[in-house]
Design brief:
Number of domains: 1
Strand content: under 5%
Distance between the termini: 63 Å
Radius of gyration: 31 Å
Order of helices and strands: HHHH
């Protein structure tokens, strides 16, 4: 760009400076959007794997704590959940 201005070639090739500015800005724009996009994918993948880990750990925990599950009263648990939901305000 400076070379065009120093040699006063800007008037000979008026669109060349515009083309050079566009050309020089394209790699920077693509690089930035690509980085942010890949970071977003990394975050989503990590969240998905955490959710899947929790789902896979649930049967394991139920097997380990099977003695507690046998003593658990499902009717009492259901009524406790229903009471907790009934206390929420309806909008």
């Amino acid at each position: 760009m400076q070379l065009l201005h120093e040699r006063k070639l800007i008037h000979v090739f008026p669109n060349l400076s515009i083309a050079l500015r566009i050309y020089l800005s394209i790699p920077v724009a693509n690089c930035e959007s690509g980085r942010s996009f890949s970071k977003l994918l990394l975050i989503k993948n990590r969240l998905r794997s955490n959710i899947l880990d929790r789902k896979h750990n649930l049967p394991t925990m139920m097997s380990i704590e099977s003695d507690l599950l046998h003593d658990l009263s499902f009717e009492q648990t259901i009524s406790d959940i229903a009471k907790a939901k009934a206390r929420k305000m309806q909008f």
